[in-house]
Amino acid sequence: MNYLGEIIEGLKYALPAIVTGFTTYYFLNRFYLHEEKKQLLTAKAGLKKHALPIRLQAYERLALFLERISPAKLVQNMQPNSDDKHQYEIMLVYQIENEFEHNLSQQIYVSGKCWDMVTNSKNATMLFIKKISQSPDVHSAQDLQQALIEQSVREELPTSIGLAYIRNEVTELL
After folding, report:
1. What is the C-alpha to C-alpha distance for residues 166 and 172, in angstroms, rounded to an integer?
2. What is the structure's pLDDT at 156?
3. Do the Cβ atoms of 84 and 141 come closer than 8 Å?
4. CA separation (Å) from 68 to 22, 24, 159?
């Protein structure tokens, strides 16, 4: 019985020390985790601060790409070499693909949805050119050039939709 009394007496002194130790451990652990998260957030904020100009430049380049492949601008910058409308169509589509390849790396700086919009705008613009080229009223490269300009005025172009999306995303970013 004497041993039981000594054990109880020892627990009277040890139990508060154990509770205090666990409480201290718990609060110190939470403090360190909080500090670690704070440092991580500070580091991320620093990265975002440095990444923002790069991201904005990517949006600018993609906006410029869409402007350059807009059918009206494209045909102004690329005059037909011959009277063959199919050759002119191929030349326009090739120019769009070439411009696109120069901007492929920008996809890592913009959202996936933005990149999809740019890609869809490019593909829809190429289809737009092919559709106009197949029109029965278009017989020559000059006819194609004129028809593309006229249709660009009448319809909302895929490049305009892509540009609107880029503007919205940049507005949200800022």
Report:
1. 10
2. 93
3. yes
4. 66, 64, 9
Please report, for residues 84, 123, 141, the alpha-carbon distance to residue 117 in angstroms, rounded to integers and kept in the order given: 32, 10, 29
Is residue 88 within 8 A of residue 118, CB to CB? The reply is no
- Given a cut of 90, whether residue 5 has pLDDT beyond it is no
Name the nearest CA neighbour of 132 among 173, 60, 72, 81.
72
Cα 54 to its chain centre, rounded Å, is 12
CA 168, CA 161: separation in Å to the nearest integer?
Answer: 11
Alpha-carbon gap, residue 168 to 111, rounded angstroms: 12
Residue with tokens 């120069």: 102
DSSP 69-111: HSHHHHHHHS--SSS-HHHHHHHHHHHHHHHHHHTGGGGGTS-
Q: Is the pTM of this model over 0.70?
A: yes
Answer yes or no: are the C-beta atoms of 130 and 93 closer than 8 Å.
yes
CA gap 148, 140 in Å, rounded: 12
| Per-domain residue ranges of the chain | 51-173
| Tokens describing residue 76 | 């102004």
Closest CA to 57 of 120, 122, 105: 105
Looking up tokens 């957030």 gives 41
Q: What are phi and psi of 137, to 5 degrees?
A: -85, -10
